[in-house]
Amino acid sequence: MSVTKGQAAPDFELVGDDKNTFKLSEQTGDGKILLLFFPGAFTSVCTNELNQVNNDLDAYTSKNVQVVGISTDSPFVLGEYKQANALNFPLLSDHDAGVSAQYGAKYEAGEFPFGLSRIARRAAFVINEDGHIVYDEVLESAGDLPDFDAIKAAI
To answer: Which of 117, 129, 149, 151 is deepest in the core (most CB within 10 A)?
Structure first.
């Protein structure tokens, strides 16, 4: 299953790096949300991506956009990763990859190196105040970065 522009964003509830629960439906209404699915903490491309977003965070927050990172890493790993990179936005643990699968952002068995199958694809979704997706991008290669210019145009 995957979701695309115009569809309602599937609601979810995940534990964050701060060990608190984040429920998507409780966040919509206050502004847009940028969901950034990423394969794994402490990897070079993911670190580059999230640091790039963090360094440009004002471009999102000034337009009332909440940035949220999602990976299948545990909340404990994400807490260490967030601290090590001084990231200023929440990181959520989709440890069983259920939310990644709902959004069409999960590698299937055999698609990711070493036979790992519980890994999120690199993907970006912008959700508007009404809970609908206004931008969707799911990347085939974990080595590619989302189109940040297109994301900013959507917000």
So the answer is: 151
